[in-house]
Amino acid sequence: MTGPSRYPFTSTPDGWYHVAASGEIEPGQVLSLHFFGRDLVAYRTEAGEAVVLDAHCPHLGAHLGHGGQVVGESIRCPFHAWRFGADGRCVEVPYQQRGRLPEVGLKCWPVHECAGLVLVWHSDDGHAPDWRMPEIPEYTADDWQGYLTHSWTVRMHVQELCENVPDTAHFEVIHGLPEPPGADAEVEGPLYRQFTTLPNPDGSRWVVARQECWGLGLVWLRTDVEPLTTFLTATTPIDDETCLLKQFVLIRDPEPGANGELGAAARAGVEMVFAQTEFDVPIWENKIYRQKPPLVEDDGPLPILRRWAQQFYPEHR
Length: 317
Ligand code: FES
Ligand SMILES: [Fe+2]
Hints:
Blueprint: E1 15-21, E2 30-35, E3 38-44, E4 50-54, E5 69-71, E6 74-76, E7 83-84, E8 90-92, E9 108-109, E10 111-114, E11 117-122, H1 137-140, E12 145-154, H2 158-164, H3 168-173, E13 182-188, E14 191-199, E15 205-214, E16 218-223, E17 229-237, E18 243-251, H4 264-286, H5 302-309
Antiparallel strand pairs: 1-11, 2-3, 3-4, 4-9, 5-6, 6-7, 7-8, 10-11, 12-18, 13-14, 14-15, 15-16, 16-17, 17-18
Bound molecules: FE2/S2 (inorganic) cluster and fe (ii) ion (FE2).
Residues 57, 59-62, 77, 79-80, 82 line the site of FE2/S2 (inorganic) cluster.
C-alpha cells in the first residue's frame, strides 16, 4: 500500500465474503483466487465439499492453484506432490521413507456454501464465525430465474456499499427516484434490515425495496415492483484499496420467452439493476470517508448502520 489508508479502519472487517459462484468450482476442479491481499486456492473435493486454502505450499512454496490436483478429499501440490487434506494439513509426502510426516499445512478458510455461492469467513484477529447467511428461497423457486451477474473492480471499502442502503438522499440524485425514499431500519445481530418506502397518492407508504445486509460483504435487495427481483451485491476486498463488487440477480419473469430465456421486461429489469450500480461507482472510487459527517435529519438511518457496523471491527470488540 502507498500512503495512508483512505479509511480509519481495517480493509476487511469480520464477515462472510463471496469468493466464487458454486458452479465455478466443479468436483475435482481447482481455482486460483486473490482476495484479502492473499493468494488463495479453492477446490471441490470428489465428495463435493468446497475448500479454500492459502495458495502457497509450506514445503517449497509452489502455488497450488497452478497445476495442483484434487485427489479424493485432498489437493496435491504440483511441485513435489505433497498432499493436503480439506482442513489444510499435510497428509502425505509420497517419496518420504524415513521420519514422521511434517506437521505443516495451509491455512484453511471457513467456507459456507449457500444459494449457489461460495462464501469465505474472514477475521483479522481469528474470530470464529458465529453466524451465517440464510438460504435464499428465490434461488431454488421454480418460477425464478438467475443468477444474472455483472462485476466491477472498484477502489472502495466494503462498508461504502452498505452505507449506500440508508443513504436515502442519494436515491433521488444518483438513481433518479422521484423523491428521497423513507427508510425504516432495524438490526438483529449481524443483520441490518431496511424497508425503503415511497408515498402513495393517499399519503400511505408502499415498500419499494427490502434490503438485508448480512455483515458488510453481502447486501440483498428485494424489490416489490414488477418484474420482482431479488439480488445480491457482494463486495469482497481484493487488497487494502480495491474490492470486487459483483451482483447476482434473481428475477421472476412475468413473460418468459419460448425457450425459457428472459422476456423483454425482465431483461430491462436486470439491465436497470446493473446500470443503477454503475452510477454509484465513480462516487465510491473518488470519495473519502467522513467520520463525523454533518448529517441533517432527512439523511436517512446512516447512524444506525454505522453503529451496527462496529461489531465487525476487532477494535470495537
Ligand atoms: S512445493 Fe509443494 S510439495 Fe514441494
Ligand atoms: Fe446507490
